[in-house]
Amino acid sequence: MGDGFLEVADVTAALDTVLSTMRAAGVKINYRLGGTGAALLQGVRLPVGDIDLLAARREDVDEFETALASFPCLYAASWIPESSQYFARYEVHGVKVEMSTVERQVDSDGMECVGRGPWRHHVWVACGSHRVPAVRLELRLATELVRDRADRYEPLLDHMSAHGCDLDLLQRAMRDQGVSAERRSLVRDRLSHP
């Protein structure tokens, strides 16, 4: 964990342990890996502080919590009204692993954590002894552009410029997440000039 940020090995070890622990407990939930951890496991080198798992239902978060009972609990599963999340956080091998629902209704498939987006637009990535459904980079990029985190969106743009992306999905994500015209122009320039 250099500079306080996680490396691929940190994310892989912690997530592999979480998923193996859940499997051993017989826990099968519908989830997606999101956030910067999803981008890191898809080959993007960017700062990662924790692992974010999106759950389909509150019961999934409760089962996650039960399965991880032997690990330090940093935030017990509970409702956070400000963010419309049912949320829990554990520490696994020194890594913060969070699972939550995000319970806002949107009519969009271009959002990273709400609506159809994370459930429809994901890729399967290797993670230790598991295959993990990771939210697509296009949705993550739009989130980082809205948050104005250049240390995250620049590596995503570099990666997409080199490896390609779904431009239609990216355009919808930027529109639906409210990315400014200036940032959309930056993305067009970067992705049209490999």
Provide an overview of this structure.
The chain is of the alpha+beta class and 194 residues long. It has a domain at 2-136: Beta Polymerase, domain 2 (2-Layer Sandwich), CATH 3.30.460.40. Helix content is 44%, strand content 23%. The protein has a five-stranded mixed β-sheet with strand order 1-2-5-4-3. Strands 6-7 form a two-stranded antiparallel ribbon. Strand 4 and strand 5 form a beta hairpin. Helix 5 runs antiparallel to helix 6 (150-163). The longest helix is centred in the N-terminal third of the chain and has 17 residues, at 8-24. The mean pLDDT is 94.
Number of strands: 7
CATH architecture of the domain at 2-136: 2-Layer Sandwich
By CATH, the topology of the domain at 2-136 is: Beta Polymerase, domain 2
CATH class of the domain at 2-136: Alpha Beta
Classify the helix fraction into a percent range: 40-55%
Major β-sheet, in short?
5 strands, mixed
Uncertain runs are: none
Distance between the termini: 31 Å
Briefly note the structural class of the backbone: alpha+beta
Please work out how many helical segments DSSP would assign: 8
Mean pLDDT: 94
Share of β-strand residues: 15-25%
Radius of gyration, CA atoms, in whole angstroms: 16 Å
Order of helices and strands: HEHEHEEEHEEHHHH
Shape estimate: globular
Strand order of the largest sheet: 1-2-5-4-3
